[in-house]
Structure formats: structure tokens, C-alpha cells
Amino acid sequence: MTGYGGLASSVRQQLAVGGVEATPATVRHAVRREAGALGDTAVLRLADRVHDELVGAGPLAPLIAAPEVTDVLVNGVQVWVDRGNGLERAAVGFRDREEVRRLAQRLAAACGRRLDDGQPYADARLPDGTRLHAVLPPVGTDGPYLSLRTFRQRPFTLGDLIEHGTVASTVAPVLVAIVRARLAYLVTGGTGSGKTTLLSTLLGLVPPTERIVLVEDAAELRPTHPHVVALQARTANVEGAGAIGLTDLVRQALRMRPDRLVIGECRGAEIVDLLGALNTGHDGGAGTLHANTAADVPARLEALGLLGGLPRAALHAQVVAALQVVLQVRRTARGRQLESVSVLLPSGAQRLATVVPAWRRTRGAGPGATALARLLAGRGVSVPAVLEPPVGAGS
What we know:
Elements: H1 3-18, H2 24-35, H3 40-54, H4 61-65, E1 71-75, E2 78-82, E3 87-89, H5 97-110, E4 121-125, E5 131-135, E6 145-149, H6 158-163, H7 172-180, E7 185-189, H8 195-203, E8 212-216, E9 228-232, H9 246-253, E10 260-266, H10 270-278, E11 286-290, H11 297-307, H12 312-322, E12 325-332, E13 335-347, E14 352-360, E15 364-365, H13 369-378
Parallel strand pairs: 7-11, 7-12, 8-9, 8-10, 10-11
Antiparallel strand pairs: 1-2, 1-6, 2-3, 4-5, 5-6, 12-13, 13-14, 14-15
């Protein structure tokens, strides 16, 4: 047999003739018949690779499975990988662009997505949780382009985040207090900054007597909690029907008796429904939001509110009434880090929502520390020492 490609083609033909599904067991049996007198170890190794060629991610499978890998990107036939320290070329590749195209179409089809000349891009979620985005030529001028964001089943604890340097040990008690006080918060930051990881970890701090209802565009949150109900949006099928958006799911979630309502990522008009829910007695809600800095959060919320038809003044009134805390995370050369903890306060005659830092990684307590301490104390939660600014410190 001349390599994995030829072996995969022979096994594919063998399974097709027999009308057999390409399960790991059937692939091993077919490989054994094709490969001749190989030992069990060699057969298993070949079968795993052939199975990846038939139904998995092909040569990308080992990268996706590697625990340190967060992203795998394919530009034409070049493969790039991010192991947490930025992008670098991977020592794997493809024979030609047609092989990449076939892989992209196979992965998309396995998720019920159409990917062809008539629909040259697709967004899907693989069975193992990996997020796939694919773009074919001519839209992808030098493509095909594949972007895969890996998903790790193992949740992190707050202790893990402290150990990895994501959360400073001095501010960890503040995060615990925010959850305990049922303050509503947003985890904000850029793409790949660790928003979902931090939010999932904080949800693990919710008391086990409370019910968490998650609403997500793609199911990524996996909090360590005994009572989690998850709702996931659905895109349209190949006929263009059946789409279910986050706005619909937020409304359904409100009828499911949530103690904590969580939106995995606020990116559209659903922000109006979330703010409305948090203003009707659903304390302790949370979500993530793309924002380059904490100061950008009000503007981002304003833009999303306009998508939902909420005027600027009404949006800011809803924000200051519904949300109390902003947790800004950032990706640095040293890894992902919680950069600041801020409070949302009304400002000026128009009472526009303003982000005021209560704690900053590089400077400690900020001008919003007193307001956050007051919020915690008002809900019967002990105020962590880090929120007490040094005597005589300015803003």
C-alpha cells in the first residue's frame, strides 16, 4: 500500500461496497484486510490515521487533539498552530488545495452544513466540540481557508487560573465575592483572550442549590456545577430554514426558572433581552462581550442595543440598572490575564454608563473600589481587603 492516502481510498471503497459505516471497529477490520500481515500495534496506528482521513480531521487530527493547542489554521496548504504563544508553522501539510477542500467539505457535511461553490463558507461545530470555519475560493482568494478553535473538556478551577497566572491571587477573593453577592457581570476582552474560560470558572463558584441556564451561539461553557441547562443556537439548514437565534433562546430561558441566566457571548440584539431579564429580578446573570478595553464596553453595548431597537438613553438606563461589574481579560506575551475589575456607574446629567476601575493588575485598587465594596456589603458579603485603597491614594 502506497501511504495513508492510498490505504484510506481502499478502505473507503471497501466500506462503500459493503454499505458499512466507518466506525473505528469497521475501519480496523478493513485496514487489517488491506495491510496484510502487520502486528496489532501497527494495525491500530494505521486504523486511527485512516479513520481520521475518512471521517475525522485528517492530518490536522493530532494537532486538534494536542492539549496545548488552542487554534489550528489552514491557508491553502500551509498549516499554522497556536500553542498559547502565538502562531507558528506546523510540521504537517497537505498534498494540494483539493485535499484541503475535500477535508473542509467533509467536516462541514458531518455537521449538517453545506459547503460548495454556491455556499462557499460555513461555520460549524465538530462532534468533539471543535469550532470550524471554512471558506472556499473564489471568496477565499488563496484558499481554501480553515479555522479551527479547539475545545477542552477539562474545566479550570479558580486555583488553576491563579497557578497559570491568569488571575492574580490578590484579586481572587473579589471574584468569589462578586459571584456570592449575585452581582451581574460581563467578562470582556478581545478574541482568544480567555473570556469563556474565566466565565466558565466563575460559574463553577455558583452555589449548587442554584440553577444555571446557559444560552450560547456555540456550546463552549462547561462549568463544574451540578445543575446546568444549556441552550444552543441553530443556523439554517441547507434549505435555508430552521434557524434559531440567541434572542429566541433568551426568551425561552426566562421560562425555565433560571437562578443565573448566562449568555455565552453577547454579539447582537439579544443584549436587549438580557438587560430586560436582569432588570426583572434575575440577579447574578453573566455573559461575555468583545471589547478591546474595559472603557469600550458602554460603546459596544450601545451599538448592540441599537440592533435591538433600544434608544441610547434607554440602553444606558438599562445597563446601569442591570449590570454591576466588568471583568476585562487580555492576551499578553505571558499568557491570558485578568487585567481589571471595574464597576458600571452612571455619569453626568444624562446618567450614561461609565466603566470605573475598582482593581487593576498593575496598580491595585482603583477609584471604583469603594463603589464595589459598597455593592458587596449591601448584599451581606464580606469586602476583600484588596478593595481598600491605600491611605492617601489618588484615582
